Amino acid sequence: MRESFKKKIIEVCNKKIEEKGLNVGLSFYAFFANKNDNPELLMEVAQWWILTNKLDHFEKAIKIKKMLE
Predict the structure, then answer these.
(1) Which of 22, 30, 45, 62 is the most exposed, fewest CB within 10 Å of its CB?
(2) CA separation (Å) from 21 to 14, 42, 57?
(3) Using CB atoms within 10 A of its CB, is residue 49 exposed (0-12), middle (13-18) or buried (19+)?
């Protein structure tokens, strides 16, 4: 996955944890706008989430953050 997008995911995780606490769950859609304006990046992240790491649809933000740091 692109290094620049890893940083964005960590930022989103930090924001959600700050807003909702350590138990907040996210799907990989949380890192994208509500429109499909970059399908290649969406598929890259989906592959990392689903095929590479075999994550469930919703995972704890803290878990995702730790995986990327």
Answers:
(1) 22
(2) 10, 26, 19
(3) buried
Q: What integer pLDDT is reported at residue 14 of this predicted model?
A: 98
Q: What is the pLDDT of residues 21-68, one digit of tens each?
A: 999 999 989 999 877 788 999 999 999 999 999 999 999 999 999 999
Read off the pTM: 0.87
**What is the residue whose two structure tokens read 């075999």?**
54
Determine the distance from the C-alpha atom of residue 49 to the mean position of all C-alpha atoms in its chain, rounded to a whole number: 8
**Residue 42 structure tokens:** 């969406």
